[in-house]
Amino acid sequence: EESSREVFYPVKETSLDVVIGGPSKGVAPKFKGDIDDVQIWRRALSSVEVERAAYGSHVDSHDLILHLPLDEKTGILVNDVGPYYHTAVIDGKSEPVWRDGTEGKPLFLSSTF
Q1: Is the separation of the CB atoms in 103 and 68 below 8 Å?
Q2: Which end of the chain is more exposed for a tag (fewer CB within 10 A), N or C?
Q3: 107 to each of 20, 27, 46, how far by Cα in Å?
């Protein structure tokens, strides 16, 4: 059975690194599981907007900060298809594991990654 969890944090402009799936200061436990299609928005989206964004329908992207579809299938570089075109680096102790998914290949994060 698949499960998903929506987490909302206020977003502030910063030059600090963004950490997805792990603690930024080594305090919180690391995420273990598949992660796919990461989006960071400047504001909280309505439930209708979340559903539209999840299924590729139109959402006003004015407040979109980062969108990592995680469709690379190999390697450690992932591309932001949002308005700022960042390149993210998967930083871990081993090569990332890309799994077969229904759309693309989600990234598997182990608790030791």
Answers
A1: no
A2: N
A3: 12, 23, 26
| Separation of alpha carbons 55 and 39, rounded Å | 12
Phi, psi of 109 (to 5 degrees): -110, 120
Give the residues across from 97 on adjacent strands.
108
Q: Whole-angstrom Cα distance, residue 56 to residue 65? A: 16
The order of strands in the sheet holding 107-109 is 33-35, 107-109, 97-98
Q: Name residues whose C-beta falls within 8 Å of residue 54's C-beta, 6 or more positions apart in sequence.
A: 37
**pTM score, whole prediction:** 0.71
Question: Tokens representing 110?
Answer: 């182990």
> What are 93's two structure tokens?
């102790």
